[in-house]
Structures are given as structure tokens and as C-alpha cells.
Amino acid sequence: MYPALPPAPAVPVPVAVRPAVAHDPGQPPALRPWSRVWRYLVAAGVAMVLWLSVAADFIPVADAPLPADVEARIGGALVLDAVLGVIALALLPLRRRHPVLVATLTGAMSAVSASAVGAGVVAAVSVATWRRWRWVAPVVVTWTGATVVYELVWRPAIVDDGSTVGFAALAGGLAMGVIGTCVATGFYVGARRELLATLRQRAETAEREQAAKADAAREAERTRIAREMHDVLAHRISLVAMHAGALAYRTDLSREETAEAAGVIQRSAHLALSELREVLGVLRAGGTPAPDDGAPAEPPQPLLAQVRELVDGARVQVEAALDPSGLPGGDLRGVGDLPATTSRTAYRVVQEALTNACKHAPGSDVVVHLAGGPGGLLTIEVHNGPPTWGGSLPAAPGSGFGLVGLAERVELAGGVLEHAAGPDGSFTVRCWLPWEESR
Fold this sequence. Notes:
By secondary structure, the chain is α+β, with helices and mostly antiparallel strands. Among the domains are: about 35-165, no CATH class; about 305-439, Heat Shock Protein 90. It contains ten helices and five strands, in the order H-H-H-H-H-H-H-H-E-H-E-E-H-E-E.
């Protein structure tokens, strides 16, 4: 009773991994030298324009000289304005390490210094790029309060010109509009920086994933080529080794048997070289033809319908027989509609089993039994009895992983492979492969 066919192995579906946001609010991107310089130039230019405007506002146009105390008060206010404007500019390099403190201080200086507004605008935009409302709120409050103090307290104390509450409210609204524009600009700059950092990391992640996929594809191709080389060459080389060993250790062979064995060695060596050249053709880029015979880079792989050639080639080493009576029609024509992948896998199963029989049981009886039909299972059973040749022959070298690799190949095709040794030295390989109906 054959075991039930297991479900086809699940193929893992790659899942797209969303990369984490690359921009860390705690680590703003570094600015280039020119990016820093033009910000300082803008702040200094705004400070200069506002200082000249305040000076024109404080100094009357009348021809009459000002009283000494008024002149001293105006001069002191303008000097203080300029000094605080310079201090505000000097604080700008610290705005990245202490964004809230610098923005709040420069905003507070604008209560008595119009020239500090230039540095305050840059600091306000800078703190808004962090996109944290709990940092932006105190800056907005400071700016608004400083504007009201300037219009209701500082300016009237300098020029003896009392400002109305309405004018102060208008000035406060204008200040809120300015700080609102700064906050909106800062939020836009921060969002754009984060977007660019995210896109950059996604591009880098995509490049790494593509490189990993390429490495995996190369590794899979190397593994496939190694398996194919084993399947193609192991059978031929084993025949060469076993026949050469028989010629060296058996003295009871007739001249005809010796000549026949030598012929098998020659044919097997030539076939091995030819098949090796064909398998290595897959390494040629773009399917370049082989330089000596113009053969295509990757020739068609053998199918189960060619299994009789395998059996005939092994008869010099073992007593091999093919039994296709379980197939539709009772012969190999019944596997004509077998899917190509299944047919190649079945061929490799028989090839590996015959190779092992020639290696480990020379002279034994080997029977290859094939059975099954479309819509069911293709059953392959290769049974060899104990070795019958007398004397000791050197064992052909082997990797010891032929059946392991074969089991993996069968599993990938959705089938099952079993093998077992008998107490008398016999060995049996059984395989069940799905046989899909042709459409």
C-alpha cells in the first residue's frame, strides 16, 4: 500500500516590509555651509531694515533740536536695539541644540529691540521644523506678548507718543500673522525633510533587497547547477570507475568481455565529457553557443521516456531490467503526456538508483518498475539484490548526498521518496510523483 501523497510544499510569499521613518526629530539633518550663511544674511538684513525703520520713527523730522534728555533716551534705545540684535544673531548657531530656548529668547528681545526680529524669525522657523506643538506654543505666546509690550510700554516711553489699545491689538495681530507664517513654513520644511529622508531610506532598502535577491538567485542557480552536474555525471563516472576496477581486479574475463568493458569505459567517458560541457553551458551569459560544436547553452533535459537507455547502459555492470507494465498501454509510450518537470524528476530518480546499484551491488539483479496513470500517481520502484561478483572491488568514490539531494528534488516536485536496505544486502528505492492530467 503506497503512502498518501503529501500536499505540495508551501512556497513562501515575500512580504513587503515597510521601512521605518529615517528622519529622527532628535537628529536634524546637517546643513551645508551656504545653507547656514544665507540664513544668517537674511536675519542680518531684516535686522538692519527694522533698525533703520525704528531710528526713523524715533528721530523727529522737525528742525528744532531735541531736549538733551530725550536725545539721550532715543540714542540709548537705538544702541540697546542694535546690541540686542547682534546678541540675537549670535544665538542663532545654538538653535539646533536648544531650539525652544533660542526661539523664546530672541522673541523676548523683540519687546525692546526691533532688530532682534530678524534672528527671531529664523529661530521660530527652526523650532517649527521639529513639528512639536508643545515647543511651538511658548514661542508664539512670547512673540505676541513681546509685540504688545513694545507697542504699549517701550515705544511710548521713548518717544512720548502713547499708542492706543486698538493700535496695540493691530500690532499683536500682525505679530501673530508673522509667527503663524514662520510656524507654517517650519512645519512644511520639517515635513519635506522627513519625506526626503523616508524616500532615501526606502531607496536604500530597495537596493539592499534587490542585492539580497540577486545573491539568493545566484546561490540558487549554483545549487541547481551542482545538482544537475551530480545527476548527469555520477552515473557515467560510476560506470567508468566500476568497469576500470573490474578490469584491474578480475582475471577471469575473456578477451571479448575485456574489450566490451573497455568500450563501455570509452563511451561513458565521452558521454560524461559531452554532458559536462552541456551542463556548464548554463554558465554562459545570454545562451552563448559552445565554441566547438555550436550546441545551445542549455540543452533539453532527459525525460522518463529515455529511461530505457539508462537501463541498457547499466547492463554491463548489473543485470538490469525495465518493467513498464504498470503504465497505460504497458510500455513507455504511456508517459508521453507526463508533465516535463515530473518526467525529468522521475528520470533522475531512476538514474540515481541505477548509479548506486552499480557502485554498491555490481553483478546484482536490478528491476526498474514503473506504474501509474494520469490523474493519480506515478510510481517508481528500483530494487537491486545483493552483489554477486566475487572478489573485492574498490568502491567508487561518492559524496554520500545523492539520495539526500534526490529526496529534496522529489519533494519540490510534490512527491515522496523512500529507500530501504534489506538484511541480505538488497536495496529498494520507491518514489511517488503526482501525475496531472493533460489538458
